[in-house]
Amino acid sequence: MVGPKGNFGKPVEGVLITVPLDKQVHCTSIKVNVGSAKFDEVKKAIIWKIGRMPQKTPCFEGSLVMRGTARDQGYKCSAPAPLILGEFKISGYSVSGVKISGLSVMNCGTTKPYKGVRTITKAGKFQVRTST
Asked: Which domains, from first to last, does the chain contain?
């Protein structure tokens, strides 16, 4: 499940969740209630594009099929505890709380500057570490 921890008063957009998997994963069965998810065979990762965070809580569930032979029945996943990568942005919101009260532009010639200031919070990429 994915969701914001607080109410920002602004929509959370561009939500992208990436779940890297072990190299032994052969295929997956993925089901999501919001957005679209796919298994990237080359990167060995599940990529879940949610987009704009909806009112209902986005949920993801699925199963994995591991590659192996009969003698590999005792195979243990070589990856450490699962790692989840997330990306998002919130337009018109400053996480730090920094506000710009004024802006002075000098020597702009004949160009008339725009008087507004736009703020955006962009997560880039962050990791959520889980335990097994």
From this structure: 13-92+121-129 (2.60.40.1170)
